[in-house]
Automatic annotation (TrEMBL):
Domain UBC core: 10-143
Keyword ATP-binding: no
Name of the protein: Ubiquitin-conjugating enzyme E2 variant 2-like
Family matches, as InterPro entries: UBC, UBQ-conjugating_enzyme/RWD
CDD domains: UEV_UBE2V
Protein's organism: Pycnococcus provasolii
Keywords: Ubl conjugation pathway
Domain of life of the organism encoding this protein: Eukaryota
Matches recorded under PANTHER family: UBIQUITIN-CONJUGATING ENZYME E2 (PTHR24068)
Gene3D superfamilies per record: Ubiquitin Conjugating Enzyme (3.10.110.10)
Length: 143
């Protein structure tokens, strides 16, 4: 048998594991995620949620995201888009798409990253000084 690396987990096994973890929520309750449609056997379309960090302009708000895990996930990053309007330096102001060129976890993707990694890093991004200064849209507005 050729190759010396660890066995590669098939896409669906990986996503089923992520689904199990996502439904339980993060340990601190700040992010959660799950399938957009529980009957989606392709495990492609997901919803994510981020609780705005305290002491920031995002405090007390819940942000909803749409996440698409393509056929090449986890080798390729998911497509991530905010459904809730938000002003962040890494988010396209017109579409809500998280832009890989300005968000390291997507732009420098590693197959070890997960949906939870992306959501947690986006929450950390909300705490960055440049994003704390951005005026935020009215609560409850959507792209």
């Amino acid at each position: 048998m050729a190759g010396s690396g660890a066995a590669t987990v098939p896409r669906n096994f990986r996503l089923l594991d992520e689904l199990d973890r996502g439904e339980k929520g993060s340990a601190d309750g700040t992010v959660s995620y799950g399938l957009a449609d529980p009957s989606d056997i392709s495990l492609t379309n997901w919803n994510g949620m981020i609780v705005g960090p305290p002491g920031t302009p995002f405090d007390g708000r819940l942000y909803t995201l749409a996440i698409t895990c393509g056929d090449n996930y986890p080798i390729a990053p998911p497509l991530v888009r905010f459904v809730s309007k938000v002003s962040l330096s890494c988010v396209n102001a017109s579409t809500g798409a998280v832009e890989p060129r300005s968000f390291r976890p997507l732009g420098q993707w590693s197959r070890e990253y997960t949906i939870e990694t992306v959501l947690a890093e986006l929450r950390r991004e909300m705490c960055q000084p440049n994003n704390r200064k951005l005026p935020q849209p009215a609560e409850g507005s959507s792209f």
